[in-house]
Amino acid sequence: MRLATLCFGSHLMCIYRSSFDLSHHTTRNHWISISSQDIIPAVRDIDAIENTEQVKDVKDADTPVQSPRDAEPIKAEKENTDADDTVKVEEVKTEAPEEKTEEPEVDEATKYPKANWMGDLPEGLHEVPLTLLSLPGSHDSLAIKSDMSTHMPFSPYNPDIAKCIDQLPSFPLFDNFRTKLKEMNRDWSATQESTILEQLQLGIRYFDLRVAKHHGLIFGEHGLFTGEIWKYLGIIKKFLEDHPKEVVLLYFQNLNNLDEKDTQDFIVRLRQTFGQKIIPRTQIEMTTLNTLWQYNQQVMILFKDENLKLLNRTAARQIWPADKLLYNPWPNMQEGHHLIRFIDKHYECSGTDPGMKFHITQAILSPTIEMAFAGKLEYGSLEEMALQGAQPRVIDWMKTKTSMYVVISDFVNQEIVDAVLSFNKA
User: Fold this and answer.
1) Could you confirm whether 222 is annotated as catalytic?
2) Residue of 30, 222, 337, 346 marked catalytic
């Protein structure tokens, strides 16, 4: 994403842009200039809209409000009789409301056949460590389109934008500009359509989590803030209670704006949330399904070393070291054939230490905002890029392989989940 400083002159507006990829922190700076000819029409458009609304308000104010007394009376005719005066009211025919037939509820097993896939695995896979299972995962799991807020500031993931754009004065032109920029950002920052519960029900078991503290609360983030992390973790906890044989990996890739005390408090809250379900740090070979089921352990939490070093010894025993346990190369590719070449190269490395690490295939394309806004991509959004550019190619590529481990993708769906799970054979 790029854009950081606005400078207004009588005939020139300069936008300082800080270039970075939407999925990772790589930046470079340069300037572009937009003449007043580009800005003035936009301002005139806004003024035209405001003037139209003002005219409408005036017209509405001039229109008299009809009182009930002025309304057309109910048609009635009065008959004079010797006995008394009676009023006949024309009979109004009313049709009986149509009976609404409620659609029968579809149970979870029918709608989401992979919601309990770990519990349904063949017995021969109950004694292999988690590292040797094929696990579907979601990339930027909390960047859920419907949850991304355009009302909150930009997240710390966009430090240059957040620092400048959110400090612009509250003025109609700036407010409109801020909102439009966030809406554009959402199209290229949102990585999931499915909610956390839907991801779990689809069969996702590896979650790539990026969080940041804002005004004392911790939110999901990816360019924009999403929901509070504890809401999402509460949903995961409830799902695991309802599915006691399912196991999830929670990889906290980013803990932005959390200092040492914040991180310690975060661990305390994690322990309070999941309790005995947390898988304590031990030999990775011991993490077989049978062992985990025996102790009712369902949650593996992973931190980077930079966050682990902030923990005391007791807390660290329940957190796994992501840097040592995850082989997680980032493709940073914008075209499908380049992506396949990259993941195929790194797939060959997955056999070097089987069972000792989680080998992760990132089935994602990573556009730059420069390419997106300049119209240099054949796709109109990250969702199109994922569903049309990345996933079909990766699914075809997987058909040529005999084994697969963790595969993460944007805009997860049943098709790619099923493709990954097809490798879980005894």
Assistant:
1) yes
2) 222
Pairs from 237-242 (Cβ < 8 Å, separation ≥ 24): 237/273, 237/274, 237/277, 239/197, 239/200, 239/201, 240/277, 240/298, 240/299
Q: What is the pLDDT of residues 145-195, one digit of tens each?
A: 999 876 666 666 654 555 566 666 666 766 676 667 767 677 778 999 999
8 A C-beta contact, residue 220 and residue 229 = yes
Backbone angles phi, psi at 210, to 5 degrees: -125, 120
Distance CA 299, CA 271 (A): 11
- Is CATH 3.20.20.190 correct for 109-421? yes
* CB distance 116 to 109 below 8 Å: yes
- Residue 144 has φ and ψ, to the nearest 5°, of -85, 125
Nearest to 319 by CA among 257, 248, 412, 252: 252
User: 340, 290, 327, 337: which is closest to 406 by C-alpha?
Assistant: 327
DSSP secondary structure letter of residue 89: E
Cβ 358 vs Cβ 327: under 8 Å: yes
Give me the pLDDT at residue 349, please: 72
**Which residue, among 277, 319, 149, 297, has the nearest Cα to 220 in the 3D structure?**
149
| Domain boundaries defined on the chain | 109-421
Alpha helices (runs of H) in 125-280, residue ranges in sequence order = 159-165, 172-189, 196-202, 229-242, 260-274
Closest CA to 302 of 284, 285, 288, 286: 284
Q: Indicate the pTM of the whole model.
A: 0.74
369-380 b/e (C-beta count within 10 Å ≥ 16 → b): bbebbeeebebe
Cα(382)–Cα(175) distance, integer angstroms: 25
Residue with tokens 């199109």: 384
Measure CA of the first residue to CA of the last residue in the chain; give whole Å: 45
Backbone angles phi, psi at 275, to 5 degrees: 55, -130
Instruction: Please report which confidence band the pLDDT of residue 48 belongs to, taking 50, 70 and 90 as the band edges.
Output: very low
| Whole-number Å distance between alpha carbons of 5 and 2 | 10
The conformation of residue 154, written as its DSSP 8-state character, comes to: B
Residue type, 143: A
- Which is nearest to 25 in space by CA: 389, 382, 324, 368? 368
**Distances from the Cα of 8 to the Cα of 11, 29, 117, 211, angstroms:** 8, 19, 58, 34
Which of 24, 139, 337, 359 is catalytic? The answer is: 139
How much is the pLDDT for 132? 95
